[in-house]
Design goal:
alpha/beta, 17 helices, 21% strand, Rossmann fold, single chain, 24 strands, 9-stranded mixed β-sheet, 2 domains, 506 residues, 6-stranded mixed β-sheet
Length: 506
């Protein structure tokens, strides 16, 4: 028997979805529609009765014996997704979510499975896990800057870098240059590009971007028009232990590639930054902020450099779900091994988005560089939605894996369908809450709803950048962790110079 099915959406999306469902072989039994933000005067959609507004979902499901709810909502309504999902589950109704066709065609290309995480036989939709629907992309604008161009990606084998490569390939570039220092990671992304897009010329370069002279020679040889700098050290506790490595990779790696871009006349350079660069209290965040500062300083000098009009910009966003060694991957490993999952502090919150959406908005923001009042040197801030409580996310993740979360480890042990959640305490360098900008008033809207600009009036560092970089360059060769921290703190006042203990990154 076909399941009794309720359609939930706007008048437009519900109409389109009902027509699509009718074309399916052995379609479900559609019993009606619940409208989100619809005119109360609308009584039917494509011959289906309108059974009420979203507030009536529970009552409608109960009265009509609904077995399945198909939700189709535009991105503008994503804030209501979670409450609808909760109400359907509370009513014992199976939920299906279908992206409206027009938004699906304009969104990030569906490459790989990086918007989900696999645990045994359970595939978890990461966007749904945090109640988030991805922003769409202006493919025409992005295409203007990528189609038939040579695009170089540093850190091309990493989580963000490899997703950028996959999305860039969908725009038909003339050549993609893959720059990566990890042999295995480079081999993987190069093989993917060869198999899926054999029509695109590809260049795989096994190279550490910190090597400035060789980086420059690679750019001179391959002549990219667009460079996306994704290579970075990102793990907070590990960088607290090794500040000189953080400085070398995050600051001097950025300096190396940015300088080479300006010297060779690259059209656009995009630095991928982090929300941890705002009021940083840890080494990782501080070095990403210094990388931003150097990029802004270089952007201010471009006009005076003969033969170069490179547009330099930065894109700042929070955590990405499903990236290598990210929290969900750690939790999945812990559950698979039969261990409790760990959370540092029950108060801790973070911003999250999926890897495909982050890469999509990086391409979008990079294409917008230089079109505002500030010109080059802009910091773009991605719309991360509301911060997510990590403790709540852990419980949600456990349930999504088919288990029941248990707080702590009960004296009598846990059942086979239960997973304990253990609080371990915050690690050195971690904030309870991250920020995406210093002050909400310092953000201005752009033409894209998922991207804002950060307006920085006090760029005190620009005139003294050479001196500051020289001091940092000298300090990073020191064997004294404290000396490196002091050099960082001379540029970043929010750093705690007294933080000298060496901690485990485990």
């Amino acid at each position: 028997m076909a399941p009794r099915t309720l359609i939930i959406g706007t008048p437009e999306s519900a109409d389109l979805l009902s027509r699509q469902v009718a074309m399916v072989a052995d379609p479900p039994e559609l019993i009606g529609v619940v409208l989100v933000d619809g005119d109360p005067g609308i009584k039917s959609i494509n011959g289906l009765s309108v059974l009420g507004p979203i507030e009536a979902i529970g009552a409608v499901c109960s009265a009509a014996g609904v077995a399945q709810g198909i939700v189709s909502l535009p991105a503008a309504y994503r804030d209501q997704w979670r409450s609808i999902s909760t109400e359907l589950r509370r009513s014992g109704v199976i939920e299906r979510f279908v992206t409206p066709m027009d938004e699906l065609l304009n969104s990030a290309p569906a490459v790989g499975e990086q918007a989900s995480v696999q645990l045994s036989n359970t595939k978890i939709d990461l966007g749904k896990l945090v109640g988030r629907q991805a922003h769409s992309i202006d493919r025409d604008l992005v295409g203007e800057n990528i189609t038939d161009q040579c695009v170089l990606v540093t850190g091309a084998g990493g989580s963000i870098g490899s997703e950028l490569v996959k999305q860039i390939a969908s725009f038909g570039p003339r050549r993609i240059v893959l720059m990566e220092r990890s042999e295995n990671a480079l081999f993987g992304v190069d093989r993917w590009l060869k198999e899926i897009h054999p029509e695109i010329e590809r260049v795989a370069i096994l190279h550490d971007v910190v090597d400035a002279a060789t980086t420059l020679s690679h750019l001179e040889r391959w002549g990219p028009e667009v460079v996306l700098h994704a290579a970075a050290h990102k793990h907070v506790p590990l960088m607290e232990d090794h500040p000189s490595h953080a400085v070398t990779n995050n600051v001097f790696g950025t300096k190396s590639i940015a300088d080479a871009c300006v010297a060779t006349g690259v059209d656009r350079f995009v630095l991928i930054s982090s929300d941890k660069a705002v009021n940083p209290v840890n080494v990782m965040g501080a070095t990403k902020r210094i990388a931003e500062m150097y990029t802004q300083s270089l952007a201010a000098q471009v006009e005076s450099i003969p033969g170069s009009d490179t547009k330099l910009s930065m894109v700042r966003f929070g955590n990405v779900l499903g990236s290598a060694c990210s929290v969900l991957e750690i939790w999945a490993d812990q559950i698979s091994a039969g261990r409790p999952i760990t959370v540092t502090d029950e108060r801790m919150t973070r911003y999250f988005m999926t890897i495909p959406e982050a890469a999509t908005l990086v391409l979008q923001a990079g294409s917008m560089s230089g079109d505002g009042a500030q010109g080059s040197g802009e910091v773009f801030v991605l719309d991360m939605g509301e911060p997510i409580n990590i403790f709540t996310l852990a419980q949600r993740f456990v349930r999504a894996c088919g288990y029941s979360p248990v707080i702590g480890e009960p004296a009598g042990g846990v059942g086979p369908a239960e997973v304990p959640i253990i609080l371990t305490g915050s690690r050195p360098g971690e904030k309870l809450h991250e920020q995406l900008s210093y002050d909400a008033e310092e953000l201005t809207k752009t033409a894209h709803p998922g991207i804002a600009r950060f307006n920085e009036d006090d760029a005190w560092f620009i005139d003294s950048m050479d001196e500051l970089i020289a001091r940092l360059d000298e300090a990073r060769t020191s064997t004294s962790r404290q000396e490196v921290i002091r050099a960082i703190a001379s540029m970043i006042p929010t750093m705690d110079v007294k933080s000298t203990s060496v901690v485990s990154a485990a």
